[in-house]
Amino acid sequence: MSLKILCIDATILRDDRLTGVERYIIELIKAFGKIENEFKIYVLLNKRYTKFRSQINFGDPIYSPTTYRIINDQIWIPYITLKLKADLVHFPVFGAPVFCQTPAVLTIHDATPWKFPETISKGMRLYYKPLYKQSVKRAKHIITVSNSSKNDLIAALNIPTNKITTIYEAVDRDFFNIDNLHHLSPLDLNLKYLLSVGTLEPRKNVKILLEAYAILKSKYKIPHKLVFTGRKGWIDNLKVDESLKEDIIFTGFIPDENLPSVYNNAAVYVFPSLYEGFGFPILEAFALKVPVVSSDTSSLPEIGGNGCLYANSGSAAEFAEQIYSILKDNGLRNMLVDNGNKILQNFSWTKCGLETLQVYRNILN
After folding, report:
1. 290: helix, strand or coil
2. Structure pTM?
3. Tell me: the pLDDT tens digits for 49-99?
4. CA angle at residue 18 from 12 to 20, to 5 degrees?
5. 4-170+348-364 has which fold?
6. Is the CATH number 3.40.50.150 carried by domain 193-344?
7. Distance from CA of residue 362 to its chain's centroid?
8. Which of 159, 241, 252, 356 is spaced 20 to 30 A from 221 at the CA atom?
9. Are 6 and 39 in contact (CB under 8 A)?
10. CB within 8 A of 162, min separation 6: which ones?
């Protein structure tokens, strides 16, 4: 029996960006390399960016000749998948090209463009969001990353329930390992700090965390600094109280190899996001034994379970109270860390890879 030919679109990978969707692509392909399967896999990459190629050590690379997103998506990918005579192409981030004749699987991570359209970028609003509707109709199957996202996508895009499957993501337990911190934190701080990791964009609800921090400083007199780690996205009107500027640090993008130490030195990880399809940082914090205060919205309670304390995403006062309850109570802190470690055992990239391969088989058999 001849091998089935599979293409995976990884052209979104860039040297200066590593968000949740990029992690998903990298870890999924790495998982395939550890699982015996019947596919000939081609990984579609952008020739301009080289940083993550060493991590994708499975599959045959094919390099796009262009860095222009629309040309790459709408012309090159349909061309190359036909040339390779691919049986299936997986789009792990965005919708399938309009004229792609190769059967497609889509991963749609969340329903942000439909539930919170005011928080999305111009590119998502004008290009990707319209692309999704026709892609969903033509796709052989949809994968999403939580039951919360599954229900939202079914409602937003009228997807039949038998056409969409939840497959949980995970974290690299070897990388996010408290006993294996090879790189020092780039933050030279003597005190523990409150940490938030992610692209600065409206959906991340940075404003509420800034307000909560102001309460923590004025009401509870905490000595901790507040650290935001992540590249600046499309957030507007982010104002920091003048009296707090010396205590709030925006690091910008931090290389992936430094992230474990950044987490490890945090007193509390705070995740005030308005909406998340999965929420990688919760599991990353669990892996490095950092207690978490999270919004009580979307998929976050589904992923975090009893390993987090939760607050209303619109209430700075609730966030401040939950954060302070951890800072003042070591018993509560230890309980959350223990619970988080147990929850972490339920998430595995190998399991994600196995379940994804089964989706491919169900389509092609």
Report:
1. coil
2. 0.90
3. 777 777 776 778 999 999 888 999 999 999 999 999 999 999 998 788 888
4. 90
5. Rossmann fold (3.40.50)
6. no
7. 26
8. 252
9. yes
10. none
